Amino acid sequence: MSSVEKPEVQASPRPRRKRGVPEGLWMRCEGCGATVFKKKIDEHMGVCTEAGCNYHFYVPAMKRIEQLLDQDSFEEWHTELSSLDPLGFVDRRPYPERLREEQARTGLKEACIVGRGYLRGRPLVCAVTDSAFIMGSMGSVVGEKLTRSIEQATRLLLPLVIVSGSGGGARMHEGILSLMQMGKVCAALGRYHDAGGLFVSVLTNPTMGGVAASFASLGDIIFAEPKALVGFAGPRVVKATVKAELPEGFQTSEFMLAHGFIDRIVSRPQLRTEIARVIDYCVR
Amino acid sequence: MPPAYRLPFEKPILELEATLAELEAAPGSEVEVRDKIRKTRVELSRLKREIFEKLEPWEVVQVARHPERPHSSDYLELVFDEFVELHGDRAFGDDPAILTGFAKLEDRKVMFVGQQKGRTMKDRAATLNAMPHPEGYRKALHRMQMAAKYRLPIICFIDTPGAYPGIGAEERGQAYQIAFNLREMSRIGTPIVCIVIGEGGSGGALGIGIGDYIAMLQHSYYSVISPEGCAGILWKDSKYKDRAARALKFTSGDLKRLGVIDEIIQEPLGGAHRDHRQTAVILKGRLMQIVRDLSSYPIDRLLERRYDKFRRIGVFEELPPVVGGNGDNRDSAAETA
Description:
The complex is a heterodimer. Chain A is α/β, with parallel strands linked by helices.
């Protein structure tokens, strides 16, 4: 249950150890604690192969797209958008500096990648948020990229798949503008919904806060990877509020499934099959 | 009447108010005393203006949270001529943190949806200081959808530190319900006016905050996260809340500058908590005007406007795409607020 104990962290001002799969031949699985062969995990889409473990390691957004879509079918959109610093936000570091560091560290320009591609020959619009980039939080650029993609999916009458990985929710560094992106993206999803579009939302570890409280929860179909942290308020905040121990497995995918907010828990290697099947049921 | 709850920066005002009260209570009406009273009043106005014009963001939060600041229930008394409360969400329960029901604004019938803190300890415990559960958001949406059916304009009063972060709230889908409200409010076919009357706490505020006209009372705030929460995460200690408050740019002036709100509604000198009645008079005047204006739009035009209103929010840079580059650039016009 390591995911439950993970504190609700947003952007950390301290330089931190790179998330996810570290360099080197061997690594430790956070799920079962076993030392596992990195190459073997990579070959298995970043899922632990130890008996009974099935721990899902973090995968970067581009890797996720490779895993999900048909080879070389992805056409990235809106790479020309980049973040500004509308508030002149400085915490212990200026926001532009933090952006540059995150860009250098992750190789991403922003926390989400959008575009179109094919999944087993089925055309679709696809967006992925990357939890490594300022906790996958949504600021103006993420909101704009998602909104444009949804509008394009509406025009093109294509299915939409959004894979969320965001512990940060709405990005603090852009203040109220980030909060308003939630409204903007949801309004676009409203139009897409009215146009009869199929939206498959895939929740990965973690999907919290303003991301969970906007697009991630609005899928016609909502899949979640096993044991992902999914919820509104971070577990630390909840614990501090209720001043009691949190129930076992609180805010995991399994918890959300039990309470009726997720349609299916799907392991990463099955995602392609599951999404393709849903598209075949829903898309004429 | 000076408020009983004292904010540190209000000290000079309170002292002068006490002096004035003493002078006024003194028997007799010598010219000298009357002159002194007059001068003190002038001085008091000057002092209030001086202090309240230059509030630090953290001080704005303190004013917005002032226990004697008017709440939804006060405005229901002072602004509206009738309130027919409608309870419950038809699914789980009746969240007292959001009041809903029919109301009359002079002779105009409206649907009222307002976050409610409560004046007494008991009320505050019941509403959790206006931190709604999912059933509160569901209740609000249920009433708004009914309002659309009968073409009643909707008035939303926002006043919450945030949606309640509890176990039950998570179990009952806080994230989903807020998300659903955002989507549905963006296309409810009747005018929606949202006024931040005190605290505009993050997703908990936005959950009843999608509308055609968004305004804030002068000394309210509207933020992506509470200053304490932000300080705890970015400064690693909530005691830096005043710094976080400055960084977040969440005052009514900030939001107006950022193009997020349509209007700042002025409060009486020294803040709404000093004069509920006067605040209500100002608010009522503005509400009547706004509702009248919005009611003149055909519904499809209204919904277009509402969509565009949120669509254009965001500040970013858009570099020209690389020649022969990728992407569908049909809507590549730079849209910055």
